[in-house]
DNA sequence: AATGAATGAGCATTCATTCAT
DNA sequence: AATGAATGAATGCTCATTCAT
């Protein structure tokens, strides 16, 4: 693996462990097994390195959302949504402290936001992706034609997001099984509204 | 107003504007119109001051949750839930950057968590409060006897939480009317599941 | 006891416990059971308070030296010297850290020195006092007429001084009996030179 | 010379001039011709730097004490002791304010003590070294077989120590000749006791 | 005389960044 | 590209002193 990737992974590790405020370039360098100077051969600044790491979060969720689009009309809606919910729970959980750290520095927040705006990406796109999927299912008649697709997406992903937030806050870990239970309970309640 | 309160309010203002990472004691003092030394006559450290400010967030939501308990059986369930949703949207919106900043420093996270554990409080209690309310309504027969009260609470507050998060992330403001629309759409979709 | 004395005694206690560098006016006030402001009603500054405390050290030794002058020709020379040695060991031991602290701040050193010069006092006077006593004994024929009285004084008090210094450095306490043994051993060796 | 040594020497200079209490990192850096930050590339803290300087005091005396052991039985005892006395007077004089400063901060005192305990060194070892030398001379029959070697060492070094202390206190300098006279007078008085 | 909140200059220390090698 | 010593601005915090009450 090249040094740039090693640095990025080391940074991610340190950031998740120590939090943005307590993450120093010295420690990143140590974790990456290189010198502090090397960081600056591959990233313009610590902030750039952080933004680079940030952009690589939520990969599983993004993949799940991409594949979700092509699942419309195939496996049961509920199964599809559950798959997304599980990916969301997993990724939100793993990345929550990184994601939240953007609010501790307006400069980072601004740059992160602009970066997403440019590429027309961003975490809020997740909700749009679920919405888009549900619209397709609506056209296919697999969910009620009065269903507010966006509201459904917001409820599903919102509950997963807050759930992950609270687990992180409480310092608790959750097994895959517990995650599945959470998804099921939420989907049980949501399902009547989708018909 | 006494200096301690002035400092706390100034700190809140600066923290919301600059983010935790860019908030200095010098700037808090300036905003409070006092010397840096005075900060330390009233708070043991910058961290303590931050935790103090943090604990005073979400006051409206907490008040709404308290009054919610006594609303069981009175006004329509949906109205009661909407009231909570609006309080949540408002408070989450106003406090999101502060709340999220706790993840940028594990020490702060730890102390904030312990503080809540001691007082048996915390943001996760919000969901429990809504759950408790819904359980009462279930006993009163105003919602279906199969309803998963906790899942309903998680969906409602979770969607509000993530909505506020995304607004903050996008740097957008939302009118009260828009907030009400969001609440309505979410509750529309949730309602069938409550019957 | 009046407040001024209470403050002085509290300061002495704190200084001996914490060392000059770690002694704060806040702690002195706490130890004296008064406010920090009161310190300044009785002493012009913390430095003045320290100098006041400093001047009240070695009281026993000074008393012993005063009474020593009138002992010339009475009890055996060796007994008189031993009495002085014991007073020196006791006082040096109790005051060493205070005495040494004057070297940590040239301003204090200067003022302490000037204070003594004015009043024609000072710790070096101790050696002169023993010298004066020995000169009397020499005139009385109780010690050899070739004896270098000042050298004898320097040897006796010097060994006591360094002994106390080293005990303090090592953090050891010494019983009165051990102190007496030290004095005896030193005087045994010194005695042949006095004849 | 490397920066670490330059910093240490600069620190020693500033400490001797200003006293521990008035020695700031800013001034040390200035005296060393480097930035304050550089201090921390070579020493963990100001305290560590001080302890480093402290451990390099009394080098001449230590050398004299080492060579003293091999002088037993060679040059006259009195000459050997005088050599030690002169080294002691010189080093005590030059280092007194540094040595005494350890009593102004219990933390420094503790760490300095522990450092010596570990390495089985320390200023009190000086007296033991002289004692050891005298014991050899006793075995060689060059001093009386009843002589209390430790008491002799304590008298000799103690008087030198206090002499240096008082010179520093009085702010006086002493020529090499005056130092030799002091040593001679003290040894004159001590000599009868050694036979 | 006694208070103690307010002060603000001063301090040790940190850390992202640079640059000569 | 890799290094790591050097930097110095910036930070949180301390504490002797003041002064209105």
Automatic annotation (TrEMBL), chains A, B, C, D:
Claim: Transcription regulation is one of the keywords in the record: yes
Highest taxon of source: Bacteria
InterPro entries named among the record's database cross-references: Homeodomain-like_sf, HTH-type_TetR-like_transc_reg, HTH_TetR
DNA-binding region: 24-43
Domain HTH tetR-type: 1-61
PROSITE patterns, per database record: HTH_TETR_2
SUPFAM superfamilies per the UniProt record, alphabetical: Homeodomain-like
Keyword entries, A-Z: DNA-binding, Transcription, Transcription regulation
Pfam families named among the record's database cross-references: TetR_N
Keyword set includes GTP-binding: no
Official protein name in the record: TetR/AcrR family transcriptional regulator
Native species: Paenibacillus thailandensis
């Amino acid at each position: 693996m090249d040094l740039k990737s090693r640095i990025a992974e080391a940074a991610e590790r340190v950031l998740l462990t120590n939090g943005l405020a307590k993450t120093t370039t010295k420690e990143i360098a140590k974790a990456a097994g290189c010198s502090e100077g090397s960081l600056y051969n591959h990233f313009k600044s610590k902030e750039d390195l952080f933004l680079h790491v940030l952009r690589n979060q939520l990969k599983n969720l993004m993949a799940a959302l991409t594949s979700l689009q092509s699942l419309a009309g195939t496996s049961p809606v509920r199964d599809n949504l559950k798959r997304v919910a599980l990916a969301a729970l997993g990724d939100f959980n793993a990345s929550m402290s990184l994601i939240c750290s953007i609010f501790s520095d307006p400069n980072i927040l601004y740059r992160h936001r602009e970066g997403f705006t440019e590429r027309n990406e961003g975490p809020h796109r997740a909700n749009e992706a679920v919405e888009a999927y549900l619209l397709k299912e609506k056209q296919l008649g697999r969910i009620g034609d009065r269903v507010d697709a966006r509201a459904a997406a917001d409820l599903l992903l919102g509950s997963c997001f807050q759930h992950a937030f609270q687990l992180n806050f409480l310092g608790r870990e959750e097994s895959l099984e517990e995650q599945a239970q959470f998804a099921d309970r939420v989907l049980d309640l949501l399902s009547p509204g989708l018909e």
